């Protein structure tokens, strides 16, 4: 393991794994593989063309960050288990057993040098879903309790306390009450308020717990938009956390527990649409992965808040004055929302109507670079140095636009971008789409 | 039995072995079972698959190609050479005499393919990051295919070297199911999976912009 991987009980735990634990890990690995995974684990031709699609490799140049290397680590175990040549002559195809050495390499590269952003998958010559296979390895590690402890603690807090920041119910309700008063002042309407636990409504709105904890004004911004659109919506007093770090830890069981809460709240509230606040991985987890974890289709719509806002504009339910946002604005595309989520044009449609000077960064849309904060990297402090270094690619993209404001529809990204802002002296403000829209909205329209 | 007949039989038998082994490989892959998908599609898997085999193969659609144009084109030419060599091998086996123009085309494609393949081998051997992701299988596969291209070129000049071509073909056919050349069957499925994944999610083909 490299210098920024602390020698701690976690590492000792890897070296002390029992043969029963190795067997369990291997069993999980084999059980989770489906036809597609097996085909793709047989497919890599080692052409190396994915190398510079990865921000880790681009920024640091370390061979252990090459997407093909990370894929090799997973396919090595597959070949060792499931191919004849891999068993007879492992050296020939790079096959290797899932032993302590391989597990250490998995942790170092598959947790420590990957944000599961999917950029390599999009650009792989053969179309191999490398990030999915890296997550498969994470699931294997999770089955024997080898999720890096800081990431595990975020997942455990969400499972045990109902949200990933462990915000007590009363604190959440107090924040909403305070925001109620703020909203009334903001829109000059004493009847305006933030609904809680309303049933038979159209939208159940979920948020990243970082909002009530650190950025309550971004909640206020969305409430203002709902108010202006005359929306029928609600918060829940119990489960409102859109995040799901199980997506990153690889723990499918915890992922299922966390996502089931929002699904069950939808049923309890008799809401029509589950609206996911500005959170990239929260969108991917709840829109795309949760029905798979829970093995059942959702009987309701799941939408990003960006789709909702774009509809308001199209339908004339809100009116925006772009001259209220004069500074140059650029947009960061969160990988989990855009490349892996399919929400690509809505945010552009909105921003072009909400600001007067919008510029794209390059590359953008599905080819965007990850900011470096995904994949659980923001939690895994042991890999923080690499995270900041990998973010240099995003910092360079931002600087090249000359923008004064970076809009990021993801609170994970916002945290990482804020650190990049300081580290790389970008001198930009970082905002959500809702905040920009709330600044441009004409109340009383 | 003459050497020519023996080699011809050898190629046929090794081709049959290769096909059976690849079929078993596919059957074993299918034995892993398919997980159902429950999330409601946003885009279209079918359109994604069409993209994966059409527009998505164009160099400007994939950064891995657009940033590495020499490698991208070398790869295409290498494969064109391989298909030409296979075509020539089949016609030789079936004792079909090719017109001069066809032989010259095979030769040209094989020469360009050999040069491209050699270039890719040099790249793999020379660049540290390529060595890092490569295993012995990568070099063996490249050398065996290169050898087939070389003897094919020579066989288009000298009839007697068709024996050497068949001998190399036997070794190659026996090796295909074992090593990386098995991607010849998985390539198509991999692209289908790619198209399905990004197509269902509405990421590809690129959604139209709304101005
Ligand atoms: S681009 Fe795809 S096939 Fe080529 S080395 Fe990378 S993962 Fe393997
Ligand atoms: S998923 Fe993203 S971070 Fe991970 S290897 Fe691929 S490009 Fe790199
Ligand atoms: S932190 Fe943001 S940019 Fe990075 S993977 Fe998550 S969504 Fe993508």
What's the Cα radius of gyration of chain A? 22 Å
Q: Specify the number of helices of chain A.
A: 23
Approximate strand percentage of chain B? under 5%
Radius of gyration of chain B: 20 Å
**Biggest pleated-sheet summary of chain B:** none
Percent in helix of chain A? 40-55%
Helix content of chain B: over 70%
- Count of distinct strands of chain B: 0
**Straight-line distance between termini of chain A:** 59 Å
What is the CA-CA span between the terminal residues of chain B?
A: 75 Å
Largest protein interface, residues of each chain: A-B, 67 and 64 residues
Query: From the structure provided, what is the oligomeric state, counting identical versus distinct chains?
Result: heterodimer
String of helices and strands of chain B: HHHHHHHHH
Low-confidence stretches of chain B: none
Strand order of the largest sheet of chain A: 2-1-3-4
Number of helices of chain B: 9
Strand content of chain A: 5-15%
Extract low-pLDDT stretches of chain A.
1-5
Shape descriptor of chain A? globular
The small molecules bound here are: iron/sulfur cluster
């Amino acid at each position: 393991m490299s210098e920024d991987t602390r020698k701690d009980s976690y590492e000792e735990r890897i070296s002390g794994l029992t043969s029963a634990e190795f067997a369990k890990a291997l069993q999980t690995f084999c059980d989770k593989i489906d036809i597609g995974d097996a085909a793709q684990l047989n497919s890599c031709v080692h052409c190396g063309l994915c190398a510079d699609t990865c921000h880790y490799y681009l920024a640091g140049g370390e061979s252990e960050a090459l997407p093909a290397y990370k894929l090799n680590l997973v396919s090595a175990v597959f070949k060792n288990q499931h191919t004849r040549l891999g068993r007879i002559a492992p050296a020939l195809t790079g096959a290797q057993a899932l032993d302590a050495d391989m597990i250490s390499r998995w942790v170092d590269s598959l947790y420590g040098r990957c944000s599961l952003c999917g950029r390599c998958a999009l650009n792989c010559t053969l179309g191999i879903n490398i990030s999915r296979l890296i997550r498969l390895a994470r699931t294997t590690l999770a089955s024997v309790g080898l999720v890096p402890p800081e990431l595990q603690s975020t997942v455990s807090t969400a499972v045990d306390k109902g949200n990933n920041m462990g915000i007590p119910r009363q604190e959440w309700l107090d924040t909403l009450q305070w925001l109620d008063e703020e909203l009334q002042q903001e829109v000059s309407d004493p009847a305006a308020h933030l609904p809680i636990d309303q049933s038979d409504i159209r939208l159940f709105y979920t948020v990243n717990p970082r909002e009530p904890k650190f950025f309550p004004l971004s909640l206020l911004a969305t409430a203002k938009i709902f108010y202006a659109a005359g929306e029928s919506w609600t918060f829940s007093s119990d489960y409102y956390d859109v995040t799901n770090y199980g997506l990153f830890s690889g723990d499918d069981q915890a992922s299922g527990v966390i996502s089931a809460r929002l699904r069950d709240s939808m049923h309890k509230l008799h809401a029509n649409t589950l609206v996911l606040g500005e959170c990239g991985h929260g969108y991917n987890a709840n829109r795309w992965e949760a029905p798979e974890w829970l093995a059942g289709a959702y009987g309701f719509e799941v939408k990003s808040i960006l789709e909702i806002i774009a509809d308001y504009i199209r339908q004339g339910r809100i009116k925006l004055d772009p001259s209220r946002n004069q500074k140059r604005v650029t947009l960061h595309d969160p990988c989990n929302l855009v490349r892996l989520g399919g929400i690509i044009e809505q945010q552009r449609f909105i921003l072009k109507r909400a600001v007067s000077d919008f510029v794209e960064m390059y590359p953008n849309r599905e080819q965007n670079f990850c900011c470096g904060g995904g994949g659980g990297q923001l939690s895994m402090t042991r890999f923080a140095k690499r995270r900041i270094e990998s973010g240099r690619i995003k910092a360079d993209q931002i600087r090249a636009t000359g923008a004064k404001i970076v809009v990021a529809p993801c609170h994970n990204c916002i945290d990482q971008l804020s650190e990049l802002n300081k580290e790389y002296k970008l001198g930009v403000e970082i905002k959500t789409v809702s905040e920009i829209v709330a600044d441009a909205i004409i109340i009383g329209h | 039995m003459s050497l020519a007949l023996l080699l011809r039989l050898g190629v046929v038998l090794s081709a049959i072995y290769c096909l059976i082994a690849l079929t078993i490989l596919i059957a074993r892959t299918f034995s892993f079972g398919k997980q159902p998908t429950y999330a409601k599609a946003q885009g279209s898997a079918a359109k994604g698959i069409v993209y994966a085999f059409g527009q998505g193969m164009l160099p400007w659609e994939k950064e891995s190609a657009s940033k590495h144009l020499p490698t991208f084109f070398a790869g295409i030419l290498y494969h064109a050479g391989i298909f030409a060599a296979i075509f020539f091998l089949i016609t030789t086996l079936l004792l079909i005499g090719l017109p001069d123009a066809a032989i010259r085309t095979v030769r040209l494609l094989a020469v360009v393919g050999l040069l491209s393949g050699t270039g890719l081998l040099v790249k793999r051997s020379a660049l540290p990051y390529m060595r890092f992701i490569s295993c012995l299988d990568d070099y063996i596969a490249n050398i065996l295919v290169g050898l087939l291209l070389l003897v094919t070129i020579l066989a288009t000049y000298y009839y007697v070297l068709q024996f050497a071509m068949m001998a190399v073909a036997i070794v190659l056919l026996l090796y295909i199911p074992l090593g990386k050349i098995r991607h010849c069957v998985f390539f198509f499925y991999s692209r289908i999976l790619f198209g399905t994944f990004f197509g269902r999610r509405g990421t590809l083909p690129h959604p139209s912009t709304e101005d």
